[in-house]
Structures are given as C-alpha cells and as structure tokens.
Amino acid sequence: MTKVPAITATFWVIKVLSTTIGETFADYLTVNVGLGPLVTDAVMAAVLATALVVQFRTRKYTPWIYWLCVVLVSIVGTQITDFFTDTLGVSLYLSTAVFAVVLAVVFVVWHRQEHTLAITSIDTPRREAFYWGAILTTFALGTAAGDLATEALSLGFRNGVLIFGGLILAVWIAYKIGAGQVLTFWAAYVLTRPLGASMGDLLTQSKEFGGLALGASLTSILFFAVIIVLVAREQLLVNRHGVAVKGMGPAGGRRADYAWAGAGLAVVAAVGLGLSSSRSTTPDDSTFVVAEQAPPVAGQSAGTTGGSASARKPHPTTRLGDLTSFATIVADVKGRVAKNDLGGGKSRIKDLEVAWDDAEAGLKPRDPGKWHQLDGQIDDALTALRAGSPSQADCSATLATLITTLNKFDGV
C-alpha cells in the first residue's frame, strides 16, 4: 500500500506551513533555549531518525506520522544548509549547486533501481527510502536556493514571497498544459521550501523591515494550529476511506479539499493581519531589548545615552539601518563587565543574541557583508562571556570592538 498522501490542495498548504514551523523551532532551540547549533543538530537528527523508523514500520499511509516526519526533515534539511554556510563558510552559490547535483544523483539512482520517480508508487521499503532521501535533499536545496535569492542577491523576504510564489504558479501552469507530473511535482516541492520561509519571515519580522511583527512564537502557534486541523481532517478521511480513495465522496471531494485549503490560508492571512494591526513595530518575542538606562556608547559625548539615536553620527552609505537597539544592549553588557559583573553580562548578552537572530531575515539582505562582520563580532563577544573562566579583559575588548562596529555601520 502507498505510504505517502494524495497530492491535493491541502497537501501543499500543509507542506508550506510546516516549512516555517520547522525553521522557527530549530532557531528557538538553538538561540532561545540555548542549546547551540551542534547540540540542536544532533538532537533533531536523532528525533528524525526515530520518526522515520516509525514511518517505515507502518504498513500504510498514516497522516500524523508522515507529516511529523516532514516537519522534522524540514528542520534537519535547514540545519544541513546552515552548517555548510555558517559553520564551514561555504558560499550559497556553491551549496545550492552541490545540493542540486546531489538531488539529481538521487533521482538518477532511484530511477535506475525502480524505473519510476512517481510518488504514487511508494509501496516498498526501498522506494520509500529513495523518497525520503529525495525529500531531505529538496529541503536542503530549497533552503540554499531561498537564502541565495533573499540574502546573497539581497532580494529580501517580501520579494521572496512574490518570486517563489510566482515560480510555483508557473510550474502549475506548465503542469496544466502538459508538462510531466513527476517533473512538476518535484520542482514545486523544492520551491515550497523558500516560499514557506519567506512567508514566515514576512509574518515574524519587525515592521521596520517590512514584516507584520507577529514574532516567531505567535506565527508558529498560528501555523501549527492550522496544520493540526488539516492533518486531523486528513487522518479522519484516511481512516474512513483509505488513502487510495482519499478525496472521493462528499466529505473528501476536490471541492471540499479546495475549501479546506483555502480556509486554512484565509485563517493565516486574517489572523496575521488582525494581530499585526494591533501590535507595535516590534514583535514581543523578537524585540530589540533595551535597558532603561544604558551606559554611554563608546565614541559618544558624555551625557548621551547609548539608546539615543539622535546623537549618533549617521552613515548614509550603510544599508543596515538603525542599529541603536543592539548598541544599547552591548553598552549595557559592557557596563556590567566594567564592574566585573561577568555573570550579569553573560545573562544580559542573551538579549542581544535573541534580538540579532530574530532580526536576521530583515537585516541580512540589506548588506550581507556588513551583517556577517557584525555577526562574527557578536559570536566573539558571546564566546568570551560564556567561556569556562571568562576574562574581564577579553570580554571588554570584544565588546569595545563590537560597539565600534555598530556605531560605524549604524544607518540612522
């Protein structure tokens, strides 16, 4: 019996929404919980392996197990790309090309072994293994291609929604006028990864960056709620009719499926816009945390607070925009370190880590080079304060360098 779902409108809606869930959850574990990238990668890889064992042992398509695996594959696929880009320093151009080649190799070997790439034929363990291998690679490729478009090419997440949404529409038109079902399915599957990420960034990012300022937590809860409803409906239909006839009959016909998919998207849009209109310019869980009275930022005149943007020298050539909030946190940390309160500095710099990570999708496309320079200096400050035996001198030096760069790159 087939182990994968029928390709319907709700299939694509769940796929796009699960992409954002996977990405935000990985970021939450890495930054907010503080597990770090290596521990998060190991934990999620182990959880994915466990879920796939359960998936392979099932004798038929079980929606909740299948979609759990998809969410986990989304997380791990994203982590693979991030590892190459952030840890190893591989360019997005190279990683995109490499993952495209890997996916092509998977398809060639799969076709030579099974003589088909149709997902309607996933009815043996070997075919299912090829299927999940391809799925994992599409997520890695989709992440790399999406980051290449929105970050390296500086298109931004708002343009990303339009570009990748338009490409998916073009694939659908190609399918309607006679393009192969297998080719169009896998093309759309790759493209839904960057589309989902761009949609998530559009909802989570601050209004300063052109987002709706919902924050990662509210966006994840909203998407997760819609996914649960759609998967529960799918599970009910499969229990009643089986996957082979899912989508048939009054309860699961094509019109009903379109209605449920449309309703899911409408809920996301309505709730997102409604919450956005009632919120400030920054989301509650990705706020640039500012101290009430921060010490003066290095390089400013006496009596000027670190959070005062008006007293800071403008740098119109910098596209990063207002970095005052980040500088304020750093100045606060530096003040605590100056008093040898390294524990307080370590605790406070967590606010900088969370704020910087949450603002990445909005800041990075503006000027990737300068963003990476600041990102590296923030990592240096985090490392110095989180050392087993932190040195006051090392912490002060890294923070001073970071403040100088923030002042230099500030685009107020």
UniProtKB/TrEMBL annotation:
Residues 298-311 have a biased composition (Low complexity). It comes from Paractinoplanes globisporus. This is Membrane-anchored protein. The chain crosses the membrane at residues 34-53, 65-84, 90-110, 130-149, 161-191, 212-232, 258-276. The keyword Cytoplasm does not apply. InterPro entries: DUF347. It comes from the Bacteria. Residues 295-317 are annotated as: Disordered. Keywords: Membrane, Transmembrane, Transmembrane helix. The keyword Cytoplasm does not apply.
